[in-house]
Structure formats: C-alpha cells, structure tokens
Amino acid sequence: MLHPSQFQVNEAWIAFTLNDVPIATGSDGDFNFVTLMDAASCFILSSALVSATAAELSKMEAKRLLKEGEAHKQQLPKTLFIPRERPAGVLSAEAERRGITVVRLPMDELLPFVGEAKESFRERFGAGGKH
Prior knowledge:
Nucleotidyltransferase, domain 5, 33% helix, 27% strand
C-alpha cells in the first residue's frame, strides 16, 4: 500500500475528485471539485470546479490545473496518480505531453493520501447539498 512517507515533495501528485456527490449550486447547476495534491505533503496544489455533466476536465482546465501545481515549486512531478474509477483521458494526455508518467490506481489505494481531505470536505460541505 502506498503512503506519503514513500515520496519526496513534488515527486508525485494525485488528481482526484474531492467531493463524493456533485455540489448543487442552484442556478449554476451541479459541480465536482477536482483537486491536485502533492503525494508527500498532502498539500492541495490546485483545484477546479467542473460541471457534473462533463465527463471529465476540459483541455483548458487540465492545463490550468497542472500549471497552478507547477507554480508552487517551479517544477512538475515525475508521476501523476489518478483514480481508475474516474475518466481522465484529457488530464492524462496533458500530463504525458509534459513528460509526467500517469499511473491509474484504484481509489482505495489513494485513500491514505486523499482520505483526510475528502473527510474534511464532507464535514464542511456535507454530502453535496447547497452551501
């Protein structure tokens, strides 16, 4: 099982959906909160609100997410972990174009990294209702 202590800062990042169910905003529709996290520090590098009706990030959103992550240490990671359960062809292609190795893993293998952030989000915003 992977653990944050196995990585150095900025060696690997994780892209995942922070919320468990779409966030309802009322007039603007429902959204998912796609997040980019450093695997070693579990620091959230970037995030994007993506329409719940979109299958995945757009090319522009994927580029912005990676660019904002890169801005923290002026470098990109060697590896990007993405849960297998989520479509991520656009983000994977953009990461690979930038020389990042993409590794798809089951979400349960990523929980040691993202579990606390997901739980904090759930406590703050609930299951996804209007907030």
